[in-house]
Amino acid sequence: MPNSRGIYLVSASGVPNYGDEVITRGWLRFLARHDPARDVWLDCPEPGRASVLFRDDHPRLRTCDTLWHTARIVGGREPSEDDHHRARALVRHGGTPAADLGLEVARAAGTVHILGGGFLSEHWPENFLLLSMASELKRLDPARRVYGTGLGLVPAAEAHVHAMREAFVDFDYADARDEWSASAVGIRRGTDDSALALRVGAVPVDRRSSPRLMLLLQGDLIDRGQLERSLESILRFVESEGGGGEPLGLVEGIPGVDAWYREALDSRWDGPVVLYPFAALWENGLPVRAGQWWFVTRFHFHLLAAAHGASGIVLRGASSYYAAKQESLRELGTGWPQVDLSVGDALTPPSLAPAFPARFRALGRARRRLARTLYSDSAPATQFPRQADGARPRA
User: Fold this and answer.
1) What is the pLDDT of residue 133?
2) Whole-Å CA distances, 142 to 1, 89, 132, 172
3) CA 395 to centroid of chain Cα atoms
4) Could you give the CA distance from residue 109 to residue 4 in angstroms, rounded to a whole number?
5) Is the pLDDT of residue 229 over 80?
6) Which of 49, 178, 291, 370 sits at a 20 to 30 Å CA gap from 184?
7) Of 193, 173, 149, whose CA–CA distance to 387 is shortest?
8) Which of 22-36, 271-285, 303-317, 372-386 has the lowest mean pLDDT?
9) Distance between CA 32 and CA 371 in Å, rounded?
10) Alpha-carbon span 174 to 151, nearest angstrom
11) pLDDT digits (tens, 9 = 90+) for 310-343
12) What is the CA radius of gyration of the chain?
């Protein structure tokens, strides 16, 4: 029987954060082409901003923050096992005046899909409740399809790993973008959802002239002292390589957060500094081209710049959150060397594995095939076997 009930997407979009927004836009554009007649609800932390960002990406899009709000009011900063049970009970029975009407919308959906990204991690442990609530939606209605794709799930304490493993038993399909996440909870190793986004045209490129030298040193989750020392090391390295006085592109993944060193560049660098704020990336496209040198800390700028043929260097801090993310791209084969900021590694010339752009395009094609399978009305859930621990979705 065709599934005409609505689609309920869950993502970390609306902050905005370029990687999360690109992933969400990719799925919305896929669904707009594949199944434009079905209603799509996007549950995210900032639904107002999301409604602006994605206003042209799906004709039947609505935004809310129901599951995110429920996770916040139930779990606080460190959810317990009882909090997971309480979140499940609210999904099944209601009982929270602020979210009950929204939970009715989620209960009416034919598909619940948690989109990829790095928001399920020990840095924000209340977000793990999202998985338990999706699991409970499946238990409440076994005919509903529940998916998770391109997930990043580490680092996570053992108690949270246990809760995730319990939740994923109920998912019809789930995969993670790195081996650490997949192995921890017993789901498939997949690909980051930005591969789909690139395939469906959700990662536009700004074709206008752009600097050869591009910087993105994020202002969150990495020690500021490490970043300041790293910035000076990058500038000295570029000067030693003959790039002194060239234009520098300063790229912003999160508005305001990633432009912290603008004034330092203006006073330190002899050449022009070209700021690429998030809004410009979103409206005009990524200013990327072959032959550039990128110096980045953020995962998706590493991945997408390499996919477009740019060479680069990854700058890592002491955080285990970024260690797993960037190591997964080393294994994927971008060819970008990685420098550990926490131990003062010396910089080396940026590089790129020549075969990587074609490889990532192939991953994008595979990701689109998966998307078509997940959203095929005739595809039974049992065609998506689980791995590792032998768990199967509930019948």
Assistant:
1) 98
2) 14, 17, 15, 10
3) 30
4) 9
5) yes
6) 370
7) 173
8) 372-386
9) 12
10) 8
11) 999 998 875 677 778 888 999 999 999 998 877 7
12) 21
In angstroms, the CA 226 to CA 381 distance is: 47
Cα(192)–Cα(209) distance, integer angstroms: 29
Task: Specify burial of residue 361 (Cβ count, 10 A radius: 0-12, 13-18, 19+).
Answer: middle
Q: What pairs with residue 315 in β-bridges?
A: 339
State the CB neighbour count (10 A cutoff) for residue 91: 24
Choose which CATH entry (3.40.50.2000, 3.30.310.260, 3.30.70.420, 3.30.479.20) describes domain 7-202+361-383.
3.40.50.2000
CA 265 to chain centre: 29
Domain boundaries, the chain: 7-202+361-383, 213-357
> Token pair for residue 190?
């997949």
| Cα–Cα distance, 211 to 193 (Å, whole number) | 28
Length of the chain: 395
Distance CA(216)–CA(157), nearest Å, equals 30
Per residue, the 3-state secondary structure of the chain, as one string, reads CCCCCCEEEECCCCCCCHHHHHHHHHHHHHHHHHCCCCCEEEECCCHHHHHHHCCCCCCCEEEECHHHHHHHHHHCCCCCHHHHHHHHHHHHHCCCCCCHHHHHHHHHCCEEEECCECCCCCCCHHHHHHHHHHHHHHHHCCCCEEEEEEECCCCCCHHHHHHHHHHHCCCCEEEECCHHHHHHHCCEECCCCHHHHHHCCCCCECCCCCCCEEEECCCCCCCHHHHHHHHHHHHHHHHHCCCCCCCEEEECCCCCHHHCCHHHHHHHCCCCEEEECHHHHHHHCECCCCCCEEEECCHHHHHHHHHCCCEEEEEECCCHHHHHHHHHHHHHCCCCCEEEHHHCCCCCCCECCCCHHHHHHHHHHHHHHHHHHHCCCCCCHHHCCCCCCCCCCCC
